[in-house]
Amino acid sequence: xxxxxxxxxxxxxxxxxxxxxxxxxxxxxxxxxxxxxxxxxxxxxxxxxxxxxxxxxxxxxxxxxxxxxxxxxxxxxxxxxxxxxxxxxxxxxxxxxxxxxxxxxxxxxxxxxxxxxxxxxxxxxxxxxxxxxxxxxxxxxxxxxxxxxxxxxxxxxxxxxxxxxxxxxxxxxxxxxxxxxxxxxxxxxxxxxxxxxxxxxxxxxxxxxxxxxxx
Length: 215
Description:
Layout: H1 3-29, H2 39-120, H3 131-142, H4 146-153, H5 158-175, H6 183-213
């Protein structure tokens, strides 16, 4: 029961306590209904009876309000405790999260470099190399690291894991298709992911840490 409902209940109860005695008084003293026995005895008994009801209503209402306030305070305290604990857990794990993020970033950066080499048909020493050899190097490098990317990214947070999983799914689909992989498309996707890691995820986690730690 919310505060609005409680006040409605109190208001209607108060009106009933005012109106009901007036009605009884009218019935007894204006002879709308005959009263058996002495009117003063009736008034005394009725006052005792009605006083007990009023007292019960008041005490019940106050108890209800008190319980509601206590429950609200308990939930508020529990919420604050949970938020504080989550904040402390995040601050304690932020070092691990960033190290895992950098591990993923390094894999993606290396893949991006290899795809760039493929685009220019040269190796890391800028020597002209057949693209078939470079494509084999790309496959050899990234295939065993697909599961590593998923496992490591899951230690950062769900948002980061979801983007890495989306990348892995696209890359696998391209490499495992019946047609030749579209290395130009993979280059664009990888470059975009590298930029997102630096501009979005790395910044987001660092900013959250600074906000929670007050630095």
